[in-house]
Specification:
With about 210 residues, the chain is α/β, with parallel strands linked by helices. It contains seven helices and ten strands. The protein has helices at about 10-15, 90-100, 105-120, 140-150, 180, 185-190, 205; strands spanning about 15-20, 25, 30, 35-40, 45-50, 55-60, 65, 70-75, 125-130, 155-160. The strands form three sheets. The chain has a four-stranded mixed β-sheet with strand order 5-4-1-6, with no helix packed on it. The protein has a three-stranded mixed β-sheet with strand order 3-2-7, with no helix packed on it. The chain has a three-stranded parallel β-sheet with strand order 8-9-10, with helices on one face. Strand 2 (about 25) and strand 3 (about 30) form a beta hairpin.
């Protein structure tokens, strides 16, 4: 992807260029020392050996720049239970988690997702699959998680799930009819209709501030 920095456009465009560098930069399938990733707005314009003279340079020094990660399995709302269910075996942990989260509504789900997704972006994860089963209230909790992902700027695969392995409380509070699930695609479309489908990584995250 290397190109001549002198071909990147007019002075007006060049004034927006930011060149990111570190002691190790992943490019062309391998790490190399002191490459510059030149970003024009939200687009990687080039990866070059020398930063364009007009670009602002952000140097992470003794660090590595590499492609973002994908979290393929998470439960975003469980960030709210961190530190509350430690030091017990899996069976007890599951019982405590289900009992504690069964009554979560849209506000709790939004806050838990925003916390989880924000931490992911800060650590270099830009896409996530959320295995989500707090659906007994309908689709409102799912919508809250989608709003959090859209507001934070992370790519989301919403893994809306259901649990029917048990019938006793608190499991029964996770049950949802198939008719309620069938209405999800149309109502989800309404959430995203006024927002850009292209998620952006906030500049403060990109710059590590």
């Amino acid at each position: 992807m290397s190109i001549d920095p002198g071909t990147m456009g007019t002075a007006e465009r060049a004034s927006r260029l930011i060149a990111y560098t570190a002691s190790e930069v992943f490019a062309e399938g391998a790490f190399a020392g002191r490459k510059y990733i030149v970003v024009d707005g939200e687009v990687i314009a080039a990866i070059v050996d020398v930063a364009p003279p007009s670009a602002s340079v952000v140097d992470f020094r003794e660090a590595a720049i590499y492609p973002s990660a994908v979290n393929t399995h998470t439960h975003s709302f469980q960030s709210l239970l961190r530190g509350c269910v430690d030091g017990i075996d899996l069976g007890q942990w599951l019982e405590r988690v289900y009992a504690s989260s069964a009554d979560y509504g849209p506000e709790e789900c939004y806050l838990g997702a925003a916390l989880s997704f924000g931490e992911m972006l800060r650590s270099g994860t830009t896409a996530v699959a959320d295995f989500f089963y707090l659906n007994a209230r309908g689709n409102e909790n799912v919508h809250a998680v989608i709003r959090a992902a859209t507001d934070i700027g992370i790519r989301l695969v919403m893994g809306r799930a259901g649990l029917d392995a048990e019938v006793e409380a608190p499991w029964r509070r996770f049950r949802r009819s198939s008719s309620g699930s069938a209405r999800l695609p149309g109502t989800t479309k309404a959430i995203l209709s006024s927002k850009s489908a292209r998620h952006r990584i906030p500049s403060t995250v990109l710059r590590g501030r």
